[in-house]
């Protein structure tokens, strides 16, 4: 989103109904970088015992 807005100046007003939400998980914060990692995603795959993971992802 930030790339699409460049070179404009962007003001991002974010609202959350949960106190303490991290800015990168609030849906109204599309200009905030995602801080999730491959390890975070792999943990979700394992937690939910997901088996149909594309080979291109498994081999990273």
Q: How would you characterize the overall build of this protein?
A:
The protein is mostly helical and 60 residues long. The chain has one domain. Helices cover 30% and strands 0% of the residues. The protein has helices at 2-5, 38-47, 55-58. The longest helix has 10 residues, at 38-47. The chain is flat and about 40 Å long. It starts with a helix and ends with a helix. The mean pLDDT is 81.
Helices, strands, pairings?
Layout: H1 2-5, H2 38-47, H3 55-58
N- to C-terminal distance = 26 Å
What is the H/E order? HHH
What is the count of DSSP helices, taking H or I runs of 4+ residues?
A: 3
Task: Tell me the count of domains.
Answer: 1
Instruction: Give the overall shape, derived from the CA principal axes.
Output: flat
Q: Given the helix and strand composition, which structural class is it?
A: mainly alpha
Query: How helix-rich are the residues, as a percent range?
Result: 25-40%
The biggest beta sheet reads: none
* Radius of gyration, in angstroms, nearest whole number: 16 Å
Percentage beta strand: under 5%
Features of this protein?
60 residues, mainly alpha, 3 helices, 30% helix, flat
Summed up:
The chain is an all-alpha fold. It is built from three helices and no strands.
